[in-house]
Design goal:
4-stranded mixed β-sheet; 4 helices
Length: 107
């Protein structure tokens, strides 16, 4: 839904049931969260012949560590405490837009 509203041609996300054009609130399949997000990302990359090593992923949450560790260019954006620690240890870029600063950078 969000991808459609933004005019994007594709997105990965949890699917919600619709009946007669109305969202019911029921999920279709598993929620795309944690390890499931990593699986969905890998499937998309395989389907579209994309290189995960050359791909970027952005997140603010430790819940996305499986996705972030699947790509060659992970970036922490306004990260929670656990993601901040992980990103610092892994030397990932950390963007804090609340403070308008780049905390770490990786070439």
């Amino acid at each position: 839904m969000i991808a459609h509203e933004l005019g994007l041609t594709g997105a990965i996300g949890t699917k919600v049931e619709r009946k007669n054009g109305i969202l019911t609130g029921k999920l279709v399949g598993k929620p795309i969260h944690g390890a499931e997000k990593r699986k969905a990302l890998k499937a998309l990359a395989k389907d579209r012949n994309l290189s995960l090593k050359r791909s970027y992923a952005y997140s603010d949450s430790q819940n996305d560590l499986p996705m972030l560790t699947a790509v060659g260019h992970p970036v922490a954006v306004n990260p929670d405490k656990i993601l901040t620690r992980y990103a610092k240890a892994a030397d990932w870029p950390i963007y804090d837009f609340k403070k308008r600063e780049l905390k770490a950078n990786r070439e």
